[in-house]
Design brief:
The chain is α+β, with helices and mostly antiparallel strands. 36% of the residues lie in helices and 21% in strands. The longest helix has 23 residues.
């Protein structure tokens, strides 16, 4: 039997909840801050702690994988069934920096349980959501009587997600054979709210750049030369002004080539969410919403590509006036990308667009940062339906759908392994990722445990190889 009875799963989880939370608290006490070079020993200690915990859970293979930066953890538990699908769970064990003086009510690396919540850095992002897989698989085994999971289960928990995953693409490429699977489950995400459980179906990609514009060899007198030579600050402003058309669509030729458009069903599902735009604006610290014509706010944030001006500088910035033509100016731009868009093609299109818009006498350089590709799973994908059914069993209600407007390393797994990426997370917006007093709702954490206990059997039944 691969399908776990609900009552048996819930009984097992209830009996082992306290011990699980003790384990989580122990892990959270390790300050695995990837942004702080001084925490390198703690990152290694965190990886070794997790490897030992996964071995204790029952994984027969647990390894600490070295990278050029912080170590990752790999674990594998074969099902024993040659036809069973293989599932890879992704998460991360590094955390954001945190200190009491940042505004924490308690010590960030000394977990505190209060009012059904555990407060600590990493409680939700992402240690709590990584660790719930350990209790979930044990509940799955106990409820089904199995000695191994119903799927071939693998885990890859990286150590640099909070620092932009600089070494993750190389790790995935080098270890692609060991990571081969049919489906990736990402547990580094959240839900709409505690009352509205949701499953994320995609994340946007990202590419960013800095454009440096150079005019005169030095700042020059605007009375003597202004209006007669090219001004790099003026040209920077002209580029920014031309970046969007009157409907606030990105005006770079070819920018929308290949974009996977929203279906009417997806738009209907987004509209079902209890979206409070006024509350959303308060969270955005803004007075009004604005964006591409023809799309709702959620559609703009989740499913449309964007071009944002992150910074524009040039010329004199001190007190009073200084009548010059500046010698240089700079722009910082970022582009959020959706399914069907190729970051490298967007970079080429931007280069061509900038080159034809600048006048003679303005030299420019464009430097691009890292690239994150978008990922999207169709609503009717069988593995996605397994995740939805597992969540609905755990929460006892209909599950709705969201996407993520941000970007993450999950797309690297999708691109290299050639498999769909699915999201199973239970965190809610109030958990305060990256903020002081980060916490996780313990009852929701147990719902995550329960959902994973159901998921492996469902995937085994509905995602089998043929």
């Amino acid at each position: 039997m691969s399908t776990a009875p609900d009552s048996a799963v819930r009984t097992y989880i209830a009996e082992h909840r306290a011990a699980f939370l003790d384990d989580l608290a122990e892990w959270l006490r390790i300050p695995s801050v990837s942004a702080d070079p001084g925490c390198a020993p703690d990152l290694r200690r965190s990886a070794e702690w997790l490897a030992a915990e996964l071995a204790s859970t029952g994984f027969p293979v647990t390894e600490v994988w070295e990278t050029a930066g912080a170590p990752a953890v790999f674990a594998e538990w074969p099902s024993g069934d040659p036809d069973a699908p293989t599932v890879l769970v992704y998460g991360h064990h590094d955390v954001q920096p945190a200190a009491r003086e940042d505004g924490w009510d308690t010590e960030p690396f000394e977990p505190v349980v209060k009012d059904g919540r555990m407060y600590a850095r990493g409680a939700a992002d992402d240690k709590g959501q990584v660790l719930f897989h350990t209790l979930g698989v044990r509940a799955h085994l106990a409820a089904t009587g199995r000695t191994a999971p119903a799927v071939n289960l693998k885990m890859l928990i990286e150590g640099e997600e909070e620092s932009g995953s600089p070494n993750f693409p190389a790790l995935v490429g080098a270890r692609a054979g060991r990571l081969a699977c049919d489906t990736v489950i990402v547990s580094d995400t959240g839900m709409w709210s505690a009352d509205t459980p949701t499953v994320c179906t995609g994340m946007r990609g990202l590419t960013d750049c800095e454009i440096e514009l150079y005019g005169p060899a030095q700042d020059i007198h605007s009375g003597s030369f202004g209006g007669a030579v090219p001004n790099p600050a003026t040209e920077a402003a002209r580029l920014v002004a031309a970046l969007h058309d009157e409907d606030r669509r990105v005006a770079i030729p070819g920018f929308y080539d290949g974009v996977v458009e929203l279906t009417e069903r997806e738009r209907e599902l987004f509209a079902e969410l209890p979206f409070d735009e006024a509350g959303w604006l308060r969270g955005a610290h803004s007075q009004a919403s604005l964006g591409e014509e023809g799309y709702s706010t959620l559609e703009r944030v989740w499913a449309r590509p964007t071009a944002e001006v992150n910074g524009i500088t040039g010329g004199y910035q001190g007190p009073g006036g200084k009548t010059i033509v500046p010698s240089e100016a700079r722009l910082k731009l970022s582009f959020r990308l959706v399914a069907g868009m190729d970051p490298e093609k967007i970079q080429l299109a931007l280069r061509d667009w900038v080159a034809v818009r600048l006048p003679a006498g303005i030299r420019h350089e464009i430097t691009f940062g890292g690239v994150t590709r978008p990922c999207l799973t169709p609503l009717d994908h069988p593995a996605l339906q397994s995740v939805v059914r597992a969540m609905e069993r755990a929460f006892g209600q209909k599950v709705l759908f969201t996407r993520e407007g941000g970007s993450g390393p999950a797309a690297d797994l999708q691109d290299v392994l050639g498999v769909p990426v699915l999201f199973l997370g239970i965190s809610v917006p109030s958990d305060g990722w990256h903020a002081p007093n980060e916490k996780v709702e313990l009852d929701l954490l147990m719902k995550g445990v329960e959902a994973t206990a159901y998921l492996w059997g469902d995937l085994a039944e509905n995602g089998r190889r043929h």
